[in-house]
Amino acid sequence: MGNKLYVGNLPYTFSDSDMEQAFSQFGAVSSAKIVTDRDSGRSKGFGFVEMSNPAEAKAAIEGMNGHQLGGRGLVVNEARPMEPRAPRSGGFGGSRGY
């Protein structure tokens, strides 16, 4: 098991420091980052926490997965590597002779 965790179904008002504080009860938090919308800067309702070792990461999953926070049940599991995306198509961006 790795040290990086995916945390989903977060309250939209949750901040990086809120998430770090919530997970610190299970060990040392190396980093905590809420993913935000590029244009508006608003939370997308998920983020990532990196614990200092795999044992602490496992304890955090067991302790926080399904935990109610702000009226929402958290989804916490081991983060997977980002899968490559297909190139975007459509829209402007080609030389169509205009």
What keyword list fits this structure?
globular, Alpha-Beta Plaits, RNA-binding, RRM_dom, alpha+beta, 19% helix, 4-stranded antiparallel β-sheet, 2 helices, 31% strand, 98 residues
Sequence stretches where pLDDT stays below 50 over 5 or more residues: none
For the largest beta sheet, what order do the strands appear in spatially?
Answer: 2-3-1-6
Structural class: alpha+beta
The second-level CATH architecture is 2-Layer Sandwich
Return Rg in Å.
Answer: 17 Å
Individual helix count = 2
What fraction of residues sit in β-strands?
A: 25-35%
The top level CATH class name: Alpha Beta
Largest sheet: 4 strands, antiparallel
According to CATH, the homologous superfamily is RRM (RNA recognition motif) domain
Shape: globular
Q: Within the CATH hierarchy, at the fold level, what is the topology?
A: Alpha-Beta Plaits
Please tally the β strands and state the result. 6
User: How many domain regions?
Assistant: 1
Question: Secondary-structure element order, as H and E?
Answer: EHEEHEEE
Mean pLDDT: 90
Give the termini separation.
53 Å
Helix content: 10-25%
